[in-house]
Amino acid sequence: MDNFGIKDALNQLGIKELNEGTSTGSQWFANGDIIESYSPVNGELIGKVKTSTKDDYEKVMQKATEAFKSWRLVPAPKRGEIVRQVGEALREKKDALGKLVSYEMGKSFQEGLGEVQEMIDICDYAVGLSRQLYGFTMHSERPMHRMYDQYHPLGVVGTISAFNFPVAVWSWNAAIAWVCGDVCVWKPSSKTPLCAVACQNIITEVFRKNNIDEGVSCIVTGNACGDLINNDHRIPLVSFTGSTRIGRHVSKTVAERFGKTILELGGNNAIIVSEHADINMVLVGAVFGAVGTAGQRCTSTRRLIIHESIYDKTIQALQNAYTQLSIGNPLDASNHVGPLIDKGAVQDYLNAIEKAKSEGGKVIVEGGVLEGEGYESGCYVKPCVIEAENSYEIVQAETFAPVLYVMKYSTIEEAIDMQNNVPQGLSSSVFTTNMREAELFLSHAGSDCGIANVNIGTSGAEIGGAFGGEKETGGGRESGSDAWKAYMRRQTNTINYGKELPLAQGIKFDF
To answer: pLDDT of 179-211, one tens digit each?
Structure first.
């Protein structure tokens, strides 16, 4: 593995054999149990992280709440300048951090680099945003009065992130929250803790050079910290990325204390392949969507809904494309598909295939676990394609693995109904050169997902748009557009600059 420069990357990122998993910025400490992080690439131990205890968490929160008092007073463009420097630091460490993401999570090195590039992009976006945190002015019904809305920082933002995007999704929250005047406490996935330690090391150096108060960027590790964040009244906003099952718990827990949530939960994303589609474009979008990150993206393509007139032709092209996939070490650029995150994910993959068969599914491209040289970790599987009905119980669920279900449709209206008829509502796509079909798909009668694309796959989103979905996907929005408003509290102000005090609605109150 040294041939890929892993040891050098770990050294550049300050990763040790044993790392403390609690940080308030300049201080690292921890008194909890130890997490051992093994690479799904080869099964080797990368490093260890000592987790945060309840007392460690409390020290972090004390630092964070104190830091907010001064950070919120820093002018937003000045906060943006700090985030700009974070982006520059990420540029310098892009190769090293991309390798760690690939090695610890298992996605291809190109996808690892792409994830770090997302971090850089959101920093650039946040810098511009720091000068555009707009309110707006309204006309008052009362004479010599002015009304306007403005936005204030919320306070401490808690971010609980998932293993599949171990750095990018956190940065969507952190960069925006920082320029809004919030401070951040991050609990990364216990499956990819070293990526978080590396990010904190990079950020701490930037903050230290700028004499930023300790506590603006904090990290806690260990599963127990999740509910400490969810139940903490000092955290007005919790951003959670993960399964729908755990998302329900987060939503209920935070709502009970009247906190706010940004929920990015499950996806069950479909591509509709019209009889008017460009099949070559379909293959690129569908295959990458289904097998990219070994099917472990919330936007991964799970269902391919194909017009009956081109069904056989599309299946044949899909089968041919799957024979050309290379599965192996994700740090090797010649491979298309890397491993699943762990053996638990492998078992979920196998269970899904068996469940689909038991419900009547027909295997189009055979799956299975790969063994032998290069596959010693036991986490490599073959991307699988199964002909199924949309109503199957397993098709209605999200399986975080490269399993693609294919099915037929007759009319575009039927296809849209099939696309929508699942509990999740994250990403969706139609491939067509027919303008009417495209516009119908994007209309009120079209896709019910938070993301709807035409002639683009379901997987991969630019940071300029708001990312998130509906129904069991949680309704949250992160990253671009006006998603920044979730990180601030809205306030309506009215100023009376006259010499009288008229009441609203013409109410008279004389005495």
So the answer is: 999 999 999 999 999 999 999 999 999 999 999
Express each pLDDT in 90-139 by its tens digit. 999 999 999 999 999 999 999 999 999 999 999 999 999 999 999 999 99
How confident is the model at residue 3, as a pLDDT?
Answer: 67
Residues 436 and 457 placed together within one structural domain of the fold = yes
Considering Cα of 96, then 101, then 102, then 107, what sign does the dihedral take? Answer: negative
Strand ranges for 131-197 from DSSP E: 136-139, 145-153, 156-160, 183-187
Q: Are 370 and 381 in contact (CB under 8 A)?
A: yes
Per the CB < 8 A criterion, the answer to whether 198 and 97 are in contact is yes
Residue 279: Cβ within 10 Å count: 14
For every residue of 413-467, DSSP letters joined together read HHHHHHHH-SSEESEEEEE-S-HHHHHHHTSTTS--SSEEEESS-SS---TTSEE
Whichever domain contains 68, its CATH number is: 3.40.605.10
CB neighbours of residue 313 within 10 Å:
11
**Single pTM value for the model:** 0.96
For the chain, the distance separating the N- and C-terminal CA atoms, rounded to the nearest angstrom, is: 85
253 and 315 assigned to the same domain: no
Largest CA distance in the chain: 92
Give the catalytic positions in this structure: 264
Q: What is the separation of C-alpha 352 from the centre of its chain, rounded to a whole number of angstroms?
A: 23
